[in-house]
Amino acid sequence: MITVENLSKKYIIGHQRQESYSSLRDVIASGAKRILRNLITPSGKGSGDPLHEEFWALKDVSFEIQEGDRVGIIGRNGAGKSTLLKVLSRITEPTAGWVKINGRVASLLEVGTGFHPELTGRENIYLNGAILGMSKVEIRKKFDEIVAFAEVERFLDTPVKRYSSGMYVRLAFAVAAHLEPEILIIDEVLAVGDAQFQKKCMGKMEEAGKDGRTILFVSHNLRAVQALCNKAICLNNGQLVRQGNTQYVVNEYLTGGGGEREVLERVWPATLESSGNANVRILRAQIVPDLDFFEGLITVQTPLRIEFFYRLCVPVDTYSFSMHFMTMSGECVFITGSSHQMVQPGVYKSTGYIPGNFLNTGLYTMKLFFAKDVTNLLYAAGELLVFEVHDIERESGWLGEYPGAVRPKLKWDFEPYTMSG
Questions:
Q1: What is the DSSP letter of 190?
Q2: CATH topology of 55-257 equal to that of 265-389?
Q3: How many C-alpha atoms does 250 have within 13 Å on its Cβ side?
Q4: Of 17, 28, 219, 234, which one's alpha carbon is 20 to 30 angstroms from that of 144?
Q5: Three-state secondary-structure class, residue 66
Q6: What dotted CATH number matches 55-257?
Q7: What are 176-231's pLDDT values in tens digits?
């Protein structure tokens, strides 16, 4: 059983000024100025520190989860989902409120957590089992199942820092699921795996649920949430806005009960609250009608321009990104992307175009994946933007709803034809 009472988590965000230093003397002088400024203006007095602000990732969240519940946690990017899982996994301490958990917890959060990068796959399996309180004999009984599920037999004695992101996630999920914790916490990290592996994971989680284990599952794939979970929680801006039966919570979310229906632009400062990690930081994303004059409503005829600005923090030999356009129920409409060679750290802008008369009516969202050397994930952002495509008035022709996710207006030739003979 999990009990959460008035849970809040606050971060202090620093807004750094863009300063350039030409020498060590400049660095020392800048640090001295900051110290002197703090001495002159003590904390809590005056007009406050303009370079710091409070950001509440969670605010007064309360709920109970019973043993054996399979709970989906949904909400837009920045809603507080990942922060909640980090608090429940004891990775992050809450600022206020409390959490009571009965049972062993295994967590699979963002790629890179849970394993020691210098240890081999074999060593990490035993390390994670020991952390869960299992004996070597207990771990050994599950060892072959874990390796077979993860499909990493050839790389068992290789340090996991050399694994691709897909291999890493496969092994991490296999360890978390097979070592039989009472509570299994899974973040959107499963999106890294291929479709076949995701299907295996869903089957394993369903099996764990039938065995009476408690599952907390964060995903933007609402179909997966509906298939797996008997309950759901919806977060928005750090607050719990809906909880209960999965179908009810998902329906409310899709009809706007979990926040704004459309998010056509998002801007993040280059701070803790921005979307990203140590590899990539998304600074801004927007979807803009690609027209000289726009009347304010995106229709099936509107050409669209997608722009996103981001900071690449590491050098990459082969850098690529892909954008997945999804319906709000989790169906992938299409995937597009680009790749580039020998990319250095810096701020970049990428722009893509969707022609008019291509998308069908409905609400759409986007997932964005950054990778190096094709297979190694740098960062994945779910539900980056949300936009709605409206129908147009039609005086003739087909007047009902068009089936399918797209309705392209293709060029067709029509001409008389005479059969020979």
A1: G
A2: no
A3: 23
A4: 219
A5: coil
A6: 3.40.50.300
A7: 888 778 898 988 766 655 667 777 888 888 888 888 889 999 987 787 888 889 99
